[in-house]
C-alpha cells in the first residue's frame, strides 16, 4: 500500500468522524504534517501520515514539537498494509 493510499484511507476515516480534512501540499514551513483535521468545535488536529515502517524526519519532528508547543494536536498515523 502506498503512502497516498494510506492517506486517502485516513482522510475517509477522519471525515466519517466528523472532521473537515485538508491535505497540505505546499506550505511555507517544510516538515509540516500532511493533513489538517478540523472538528466542528474548531480544535485543529494535524496528521502526519507514514507507511507502517515509515520514519518521521528530524525536520518533521521539529515541526511537530513546534505545533504541540503552540497547543495544537498532532498525530503520527502509520497505516497498515493490506
Describe this structure in words.
The chain is of the alpha+beta class. It has a single domain, classed as 3-Layer(aba) Sandwich (Trna Endonuclease, Chain: A, domain 1), CATH 3.40.1350. It is 32% helix and 24% strand. The protein is built from two helices and four strands. It has helices at residues 3-16, 58-69; strands at residues 20-23, 35-38, 45-50, 73-78. A four-stranded mixed sheet has the order 1-2-3-4, with helices on both faces. Helix 2 links the parallel strand 3 and strand 4 (73-78). The longest helix is centred in the first third of the chain and has 14 residues, at 3-16. The radius of gyration is 12 Å and the shape is globular.
Structural class: alpha+beta
Element order, helices and strands?
A: HEEEHE
- Rounded to the nearest angstrom, the distance between the terminal CA atoms is 7 Å
Into which percentage range does the β-strand content fall? Answer: 15-25%
Q: What is the CATH class name? A: Alpha Beta
CATH topology: Trna Endonuclease, Chain: A, domain 1
Largest sheet: spatial strand order: 1-2-3-4
CATH architecture descriptor text: 3-Layer(aba) Sandwich
Mean pLDDT: 90
In quaternary terms, these chains amount to: single chain
Strands, total number: 4
Amino acid at each position: 500500500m502506498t503512502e497516498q493510499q494510506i492517506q486517502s484511507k485516513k482522510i475517509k476515516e477522519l471525515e466519517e468522524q466528523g472532521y473537515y480534512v485538508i491535505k497540505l501540499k505546499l506550505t511555507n514551513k517544510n516538515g509540516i504534517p500532511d493533513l489538517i483535521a478540523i472538528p466542528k468545535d474548531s480544535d485543529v488536529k494535524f496528521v502526519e501520515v507514514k507507511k507502517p515502517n515509515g520514519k518521521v524526519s528530524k525536520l518533521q519532528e521539529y515541526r511537530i514539537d513546534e505545533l504541540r508547543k503552540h497547543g495544537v494536536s498532532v498525530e503520527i498515523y502509520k497505516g497498515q498494509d493490506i
